[in-house]
Automatic annotation (TrEMBL):
PANTHER family: GLUTAMATE SYNTHASE [NADPH] SMALL CHAIN (PTHR42783), GLUTAMATE SYNTHASE [NADPH] SMALL CHAIN-RELATED (PTHR42783:SF3). It comes from Sphingomonas plantiphila. The keyword Chloroplast does not apply. Pfam families: Fer4_20, Pyr_redox_2. The keyword Iron-sulfur applies. Keywords: 4Fe-4S, Iron, Iron-sulfur, Metal-binding, Oxidoreductase. Gene3D superfamilies: Alpha-helical ferredoxin (1.10.1060.10), FAD/NAD(P)-binding domain (3.50.50.60), NAD(P)-binding Rossmann-like Domain (3.40.50.720). InterPro entries: DPD_II, FAD/NAD-bd_sf, FAD/NAD-binding_dom, GltD-like, Helical_ferredxn. Residues 151-458 form the FAD/NAD(P)-binding domain. This is NAD(P)-dependent oxidoreductase. The lineage of its organism: Bacteria, Pseudomonadati, Pseudomonadota, Alphaproteobacteria, Sphingomonadales.
Length: 483
């Protein structure tokens, strides 16, 4: 049967789910495209070439069985497609929405290399799991037989939630601690609804809670309990906090009112979407309405900020990035979406100072040019002294990336080993820190990375923690073999 429905990429063109018109979608925070109707999903899945070496899977951090669930989808066997997709990922419908497929699976698709346009893997993945939720195929989390051991997970983002799920299935008592009042980390508060509607996240976290995972929200490690106190309470600890410290800009006027950090801006917007009262939004500090907005940066966070500002009713939105379009780190699809919605990109530009005294009125910018490649392989930007200009601004959003917070101080755990970048130092084989029974996973170990990589880390660390916890139990009660 597979031969009849697959390998259709020559006769059947690439077709993504249709996006809403830019002027319409810019008026709300709904996702910009609906999902496929079943015939379209099956037809697009049938374009897969079923190649012998599936580069899409190779370049997926989770190594999802992509050609296999594409074939099942093309054959109309959606429940089996979902079960296979779900076998390697705890959040397939989330990855289908927010993964940079153009840089991962789809960007390495053999059909793409042949000039016929990549298989629309992310859109099919979203379709499969959304259908599974609607049809009731997503089963409740079933805890394994109780092991009499507990695990504390610090951080309710994708790495922490993934590890929590796997460990609960293995029979551990799992407690998740997070500083925010809702679980999900940046999935909840950092990513705007037009990329990831929040009910998609909350139904996942509710499934975990229903499965017996205990969430301690609004919990500050270091204030409500030290790391050592949590170690005394649990048999093992996972640090999966992510990285939240914004990278700074060193320039005159950077402390002026109206110059804000990207995460503060995005959290305020997402909280408003939940219906929360947000004083900094209400007083206009973190609201772009009626303002000339300048976003500094070229990554996915910068794209989230410019597109949020459009939806808040900004008068103008400009994005300053020090490299050119070809060398930006953010998704090219997101850049195209932003341009369609009215964002202006000022390539090869960087801020020199922020004008206006107490409140910003303009960004004093300098043109850049690309020199020799740097350590990342991209050509390094350098100032062009002959190109200076001012950009009017009532709100400047700094989106230059994130670093690790000072966890030894924050957690009142000076003994916790960290790297010179502030990330938790772990053994590459065991994923354990220098503290016995304290593990690390996700961005707090690797630095700012992708959600899909955090999910992979959560999956991996759950296996390492399980092995260590079994060994600890065997040491206490030798002769008993644990599964």
């Amino acid at each position: 049967m597979a031969k009849d429905v697959m390998l259709q990429f020559v006769d059947r063109g690439q077709a993504f789910p249709e996006k809403r018109e830019p002027d319409l979608r810019a008026q709300d925070f709904r996702e910009i495209a609906e999902r496929y109707a079943p015939p379209s999903a099956e037809e697009q899945a049938g374009r897969c070439s079923q190649c012998g070496v599936p580069y899409c899977s190779v370049h997926c951090p989770l190594h999802n069985h992509i050609p296999d669930w594409l074939r099942l989808t093309a054959e109309g066997r959606l429940r089996e497609a979902y079960e296979l997709s779900n076998a390697t990922s705890t959040m397939p419908e989330i990855c289908g929405r927010i993964c940079p497929q153009d840089r991962l699976c789809e960007g390495n698709c053999v059909v793409e290399f042949s000039g016929h346009g990549a298989i629309t893997i992310g859109s099919v993945e979203k379709f499969i799991t959304d259908t599974a939720w609607e049809e009731g195929w997503v089963e409740p989390l079933q805890p394994g037989p109780a092991r009499g051991q507990s695990v504390g997970v610090i951080g309710a983002g994708p790495a922490g939630l993934t590890a929590a799920e796997y460990l609960r299935v293995l029979g551990y008592d799992v407690h998740v601690y997070d500083r925010h009042d809702r679980a999900g980390g940046l999935l909840t508060y950092g990513i705007p609804g037009f990329k990831l509607e929040k009910h998609v996240v909350t139904r996942r976290t509710q499934r975990l809670a229903d499965g017996g995972i205990v969430f301690h929200l609004g919990f500050e490690v270091g204030t409500d309990a030290t790391l050592e106190e949590l170690r005394q309470k649990h048999d093992a600890i996972l640090i999966a906090t992510g990285v939240y410290k914004p990278r700074a800009i060193k320039a005159p006027g950077v402390g002026a009112a109206g110059v804000v950090d990207a995460l503060d801006y995005l959290i305020a917007s997402n909280r408003k979407g939940f219906g929360d009262t947000v004083p900094a939004f209400e007083d206009g500090s973190l609201d772009a309405a009626g303002k000339n907005v300048v976003v500094i940066g070229g990554g996915d966070t910068a794209m989230d900020c410019v597109r949020t500002a459009i939806r808040q009713g900004a008068t103008s939105v400009k994005c300053l990035y020090r490299r050119d379009r070809a060398n930006m780190p953010g998704s090219q699809r997101e850049t195209a979406n932003a341009e369609e919605e009215g964002v202006e990109f000022v390539w090869l530009s960087a801020p020199e100072a922020f004008d206006g005294g107490d409140r910003v009125t303009a960004v004093k910018a300098v043109g850049m040019r690309l020199g020799a490649p740097d350590a990342s392989g991209r050509r390094a930007p350098e100032p062009d002294p002959g190109a200076k200009f001012d950009v009017p601004a009532d709100l400047v959003i700094k989106a230059l990336g994130f670093d690790a917070e000072d966890l030894p101080v924050l957690f009142d755990a000076r003994e916790l080993g960290v790297t010179r970048w502030g990330t938790v130092r772990t053994d590459s084989r065991t994923m354990m820190s220098n503290l016995d029974g304290v593990f690390g996973a996700g961005d707090i170990v690797k630095g700012a990375s992708l959600v899909v990589q955090a999910i992979r880390d959560g999956r991996d660390v759950s296996e390492r923690m399980h092995a260590w916890l079994k060994a600890q139990k065997m040491a206490i009660a030798p002769g008993k073999v644990a599964a």
